[in-house]
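for the record, two folds in this file. i put them one after another cuz i was lazy. first one right below, seq on top, structure tokens after. the second one comes after a little note so u can tell where it starts
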Amino acid sequence: MIRVVLADDEDLIRGALAALLELESDITVVAQVSDGDAAVAAVAEFAPDIAVLDLEMPRRDGVAAARAIGAGTAVVIVTRHARPGVLRRALAAGVRGFVPKTTPAARLASILRDVHGGGRYVDSEIAASALTADSCPLTGRELEVLRLTRGGGSVQDVAQEVHLAHGTVRNYLSSAMTKLGVTSRHDAARKAWEEGWI
């Protein structure tokens, strides 16, 4: 029996997917949760074979949750909006499957069996987009300050977190805004997140 933890912040989708997976004779959903932190806790509590995580969830997104879950449990990410940069981050975090939410439940069940058997699965359209996408124009430090900005930090908070002067952080943010063609640090952080760079 393949034991699954299912995490999605949309109750209807999560419930429907759980019901469909339970129709499979070799798959059981041992826990359903609605955010990334709860997914990490459920994996620790139930020790499933696979965690099926929505990409966009409160608290921790699917990739951050996968990183926290670690290699002990296989992770499959499902997403409505697949961006090439997110795929790269997911694979770097050890995610074993990356599928769009348009995937039929029977196909997802088949993917879960493959992943449980040690395989990997990446949707072909998502993979093709990732191969043809532009590379990130931002430096590591620019990405770091944008990641903290997206988390709600002020310039002073970010400066304190990265141990840099306030003016230096402003320079990194300004450079990132220029490279991304936006007019605010929040727009730069949003764009970097949408591209999957942070």
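(here's the note) second protein begins now
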Amino acid sequence: MSAEPAWSPRPARPDVYGRPRAVLGDPTPLACTVALTAIEVVHGGDGLDSLLRWITPDVRDRLARQHSLARRAGRRGGADARILRARACRVSREAAEIGAVARIAGRSHAVAIRLEDRAGRWVITVLDIG
């Protein structure tokens, strides 16, 4: 384990075309935005299409299934959701995990997110809502 801070910039490495890649920063703001939209989707709200760039197909399928179940149960979203707190942990140079607490419709939910560096950007590979 090195003595450098978890969010220290890593040296830029070239992309597949030999161009220098931008240094990935703190993924917490992205994770909170995705968690907020995902919790609304799970409660029947719209917005799944806006997440497609940031999530893997597996995560998209799980959210779509939960959205469908919420719609069948008569939920249509519309409740104000917010993130109460979030904690980030960089588990490696290419991955980070975020734990968050979200509140919607008077209920609190735990949200666990794993982000990985894919082609120079953060992509959410795991998203669990409790």
